[in-house]
Write the structure tokens for this entry.
Amino acid sequence: MSHVAAQAVTNSQTPEKRERRRQVSDQTIVRLFIMPTLILLIVINIFPLFYSLYLSFTDYSVIANKPPEWVGLENYQKILTKELPRYWHNFVVTGSYALLSVGLQVVIGFSLAMLLREKFKGSGFVTTLILIPMMLSPVVVGLFWKLIFDPSKGIFNYFLYPGNPSAGPEWLANPQLALWAIVIVDVWMWSPFVMLLCLSGLSAIPDYLYEAAAIDRASSWFQFRRITLPQVAPLLLIAVLFRTIEAFKAFDLVMGLTGGTPGDATETVAVRIYREAFLGKFNTGESSALAYIVLVIIIAVSNLYIRALNRMRED
């Protein structure tokens, strides 16, 4: 009798109520699937982030058999007050690397986009070939470019000095040329990324703008300065933002090519953090402080780019 009554109550419910009950049940299932992923993300990302922040205020070594000792801002003061001048050299190397590589990538990537803007026979195949470098692993790229730069067996000096390749410089062993060698490889690898973003911006420019400029007999330079560049500038700035962030985090390519040598000529901040944290003294607290200083710099630079991008959109 009770079963019949319950069935009657269920049948008396409107379709909307039954649908609402099904929706609540579906949401519960969704939460059950999402919660393990959220917990995993918190464990893998959020906890190390805050724990490393805590370690940056301590004197701690991961191999030492003692707990972290709270020292406050001492690690930050050592880095920022030139008490440890090697860190300032690392920032200079990283800034030089970012400025050179990102600047050349913008020029070369935008130039390639302008060349490939006009469709021609085989343009799709050429574009695919140009995009191949950015699809490769940075460590693999560093290793085979290390062979290319080899003065005795590599082909780089062969193209520069066809008659006598051995007369060329040792790119990775020369302190004045090693950073340039890394910049060359980074530009070769990531200029296609800038080109791809610029191509998407160029393809979105309406043709009527150029038609109107042609009717007014505007020069090619005027069209480029007044139409092409302003329309592509937001995407170009996004490319610069992404590549600047990656340049400040440069590690795998540098380790694959030089490992920070010769001396410390190519030792970027990321390489220094690795050496402080996992080699030698295993100075976990100091390396954590340096990592957070880099994080603050990246956030500040990103905010500058984002403000410039917002101004462009408003204009």
Observations:
- The chain has two domains: 2-55, 75-314.
- The domain at 75-314 is CATH 1.10.3720.10 (MetI-like fold).
- The longest strand covers residues 58-59.
- The beta strands are 58-59, 69-70.
